[in-house]
Amino acid sequence: MAEAIAKLSKKDFESDQEVRWCPGCGDYSVLANVQRVMPELGVPRENFVFVSGIGCSSRFPYYMNTYGFHTIHGRAPAFATGIKLSRPELSVWVITGDGDGLSIGGNHLLHVIRRNVDLQILLFNNRIYGLTKGQFSPTSRLGMKNKSVPMGVIDYPVDPVAFALGAGATFVARTVDVDAQGLQDVLRRAHAHPGTAFVEILQNCPVYNDGEWEAIEDKRTRVEAGLPLEHGQALVFGPKGHRRGIRIEHGVPQLVELRDDEDPIAAGVTVHDEKHEGPAYAFALATLAPPEFPIPVGVLRAVERPSYERLLERQIETAIAARGAGDLRQLLHSGDTWSVEG
Amino acid sequence: MSTAKAPAGAKKPLQRVEHVAVRFAGDSGDGMQLTGTKFTESTALAGNDLSTLPDFPAEIRAPAGTLAGVSGFQIHFASTDVRTPADQPDVLVAMNPAALRANLGDVRRGGMLIVNSDAFTDKNLERAGYAEDPLPSLRDRYQLVEVPLSRLNFEALQDLSISQRDAGRCKNFFALGLMYWLYSRPLELTLKWIDERFQGEMREANRRVLMAGYHFGETSELFPVSFEVPRAKIEPGVYRNITGNTALAWGVVAASVRMQRPVFLGAYPITPASDVLHELAKHRHFGIKTFQAEDEIAAASSAVGAAFAGMLGMTVTSGPGFLLKQEALNLAVVAELPLVAVDIQRAGPSTGMPTKTEQADLLMAMFGRSSDSPVPVLAPATPGECFTVMLEAFRLAVKYMTPVVVLSDGYLANSAEPWRIPDVDTLPRHGIAFRTDPEGFAPYVRDDETLARPWAIPGTPGLEHRIGGIEKQDVTGNVSYLPDNHQRMTDLRHAKVARIVQEIPPIEPNGADAGRLLVVGWGGTHGAITSAVDDAREDGLDVSSIHLRHLNPFPANLGDVLRRFERVLVAELNAGQLVRVLRAEYLIPAESLSKVQGQPFKVAEIRARIEQLLGA
Predict the structure, then answer these.
(1) Which of A332, A339, A341 to mutate to test the interface with B (most CBs of B within 10 A)?
(2) What's this model's pTM, rounded to 2 decimal places?
(3) Which of B90, B462, B580, B599 is 20 to 30 A distant from B280 in Cα terms?
(4) B515-614 shares the fold of B242-426
C-alpha cells in the first residue's frame, strides 16, 4: 500500500473539471499547493474527502480528484462531522470562506472546533462575498464601502483565528495564499494534527477586494508585514537594519526594537510556544494586527486532546466489552413481557 | 409470569365488565404519567387489550394546582379488541380540583369520579377557578367517591423518618393501589419495580402506600364492588407494551441488524422526538452512532454526510425542526443519497403546542423544499407500526437512493399498545451492495429497474467522484447548467420516486369494495376511524374506510378505489392537507373532516360526520 501511495503525484489529484475561478484569484495558488502536498501525506487517494459549503472557495472539491461533497451554505462542518464520525479512517478536509464559515456557518464552525473532530478546516479569508458579487463579510474592515454598505461597514469584524481559539481549537494556524512554502508547511502540520486543525488562509479577491493582503502577499514587504511563527524561536520580524521583536506580558504585546546582532531573548522578546495548554498566549498573538503590529503567520497553537471520533469509538468498544455485541432478539424481549398461549 | 394473588380476605362481590377507560389526572408533578404507565403494565399482564393516551403540558412544572399544570393519562382496556384510548373515560381519578375541572367534561355521564378530597381546600379551589366546592353538585350526576387520599397516605407513612415532601410524593401510588383493587390488577409487577427503583425507607414507603391504597378499596365502604375485565382473545405469542417512539427506535436497530450496516443518527432535542434519540443512545453496543448536534440543521446535515460515507443515516425531529432540515433534505434529493428523516408531528404552527398531537406537516414533507424536490413519504398507523415503518424506510432509501420521510405524530409517539414481539428471523433482510467496480462507473449512471444511482462510498479505489447541490449532468454527475439537462434531471428525480409504487401493495378497503361513503385516513387516526366505521357498518350504514401508509407515492390502485365510492371523506388532524392532495391527484370532490385541537379524533366525532353524510 505504502508503495502505491508513494507513486502518486500532483497530477493524480487534479480532476478533469475546468477550474472556473476569476483570473488572478488566490484560490488557484491554494489549490495547486494542496494538490502538491496530498501525495506526500501517506494516505491512499480514495481515502481523501473534500467537503465544502457555498461560495467561491467552496467550488474547491470539484477540482480535486478525490471524493468530494459540495454541500449547503455554512453547513460543511456538519456534513464533514457526519462523514468523519462514520468513517474515522478517512482524511476529511473542509473548505470554507469568511462568509460561509463565519457568517451563515458560524454556529457549525464553533461546534466542530470545540468537539475537536479530526478534520482539516481551511478557511479562505478574502474579507468579501465574491460569488454574490461584492457584499461585505463578517471579516471586512470597519468603514469598507461596497454594494451592500455604500456608506461604509459599521459591523465590527471577527478575526477567524481569535474565533477558533475562543471555540477551544487545539490547532490554529494562519497562512497566505501565495506563500507556497508556508502554505505547504501548514497543510502538512494540519494533516498531522489529531483533532480539528483550523487554518486561516489570507486570500486575495482580485475582483471585489483586490489588494486586501497586499503587504503580506508581496515578497518585498512580507518581511515587514508578517511575523513568522516557529516553535521555540523568538518572535522576531523586520528587515536587516530594522529588526523588531514582540514581547508579550500579561497578555499585552509590545514592540521591542532590536539591533541586527542583538540576542532577542536577552532583549526580552517572547519565545514562541505553540504548546501552551491555555489559549491566553495564542490569543495575545491573535490580537496582533496592522498597522501597529505585523500579522502572525504559521502555527499559533498546537495542543493534543483526544478527538471526538476517537472518544465515540471508545464508547462503542466499551459498550461492546461490557454488554457484548448487540443482540436484536434480546433487545426486543428486554423488560416486561408476557406470553399468550394459543 | 404468574398473576399476583390478591391480598387475603377479598370478600366484596366481583362484577364482570368488558371494557373500561380510566383517566388519571393531577398536577404535572404528581407523577400521573408514571401512575398511568404502571397501571398499563399491570393491565397488559392481566391479559387485556389496551390503548393509552398520555396528555401532559409542555411546562415541566407549571404552577401547582392550576389548570395549566394538569397532566393526564388515559387507558382503555378490554376483553375485546381495543383500537383507541376511548372517547370518554368511565373513571376519572382527580388528584386536585384543577384536575377535576380540566377533565370533568370528558367523563361519561354517570361515570365514576375518584377525587382526593383532602386537596379540595379553598386555596386549591381558587387556583382551579372554582367559585365554590363543585363536589356537592356532582354527587347526583356521577358516582362520586371522595377519598381523603393525602391524609391516608401520611397515616400509612407516619412511623417512617422520610421528609414530609418525600411522603407527599408517594400519594399517586395510593391511587394506583386503589385502582389495582378496583379492577383486579396484579400488584407484583409494580412491587418488583419499586424494589428495583428505590432503596431503604423510600422503598418501604412506596410499597406501603401502594398496599394501603389496595386495602383501602377492599375495606372502605366507599366501594361496594370491584370489577373484573376478562382476558382478551389475543393472537398467541410473546407480548410487551410498546410506545410508538420506542418501537420506532427499535425499528432502526432492527434495520441496522438486518441490513448489516451501522446507523448514524444526527438529532437535536425536541419534543416529542427526543425519546428516539434517548433510546438509540442506549445502544452503542449495536455500533449505533448517535450524535447530538448543535442544531436541527447540523443534525440533518451530519446524517447526510454519514449517508455519503456509507452509513444508514437518519435524523429525527418534530415540525419546527423538520422545517429547518429541509435544505439538507433538498441536498439529499439532488445528491441522491439514502437518508431517513422522521418527523414526529406536533401541534403548530411555530412552537405551537409541543406536547400535543397533530398531522399538519404532510404538505411540508411533500412540498416544503425549494423547487421540485420529490421524496417518498411513509406514515405508520399504530405504535407497533412505528417499528416496521423504519425497516421499510431504510430499505426504500437504500434501494432507490433517495431520502425517505416518515411522518409519525405525538399521539403515536407516546401511546402504548400491547405489541407481539416479532420473530427476528422473519424480519426482512436486505444486503447492501456498494459500487466497487470502476469499469463503467459514473456517479449518476442508473439502475434500470429503480433508476437509483450507485452508492459509491469514500475509501473505494477508482471511484473518486464529486457530488453536490449544483445541478448534475445526467450520468457523469458533473456540474451542468444546460436547459435540457435540468429538465431531464428534474423528470428523473420525479420518475424515480414514482417508481416506488412497485413496492407498495394495493390498498384494500375495510368494509365493502364500493358503496356510498369511503372514509380515508392516514397516520395515528387509524384506531378512531376504523372503530367508527366498523360500528357504523354494524348499525347498517354503507361506509368503508382505507388507511394510507404510503403518502408519496400512493398505492397504484388508490384512484380506482376512491372512484368506486359515491362520496369520499378524508379525516385528518389538520386543516385539510391530504384532502387537497387527493383532490388534486384524482380530481375527485373529496370532503374534509378536520380537527386541530391537539387531541386525537374521538370515535363519536367521526361517526357523527358519517351519519351526516349518509343522511342517517
Answers:
(1) A332
(2) 0.94
(3) B599
(4) yes
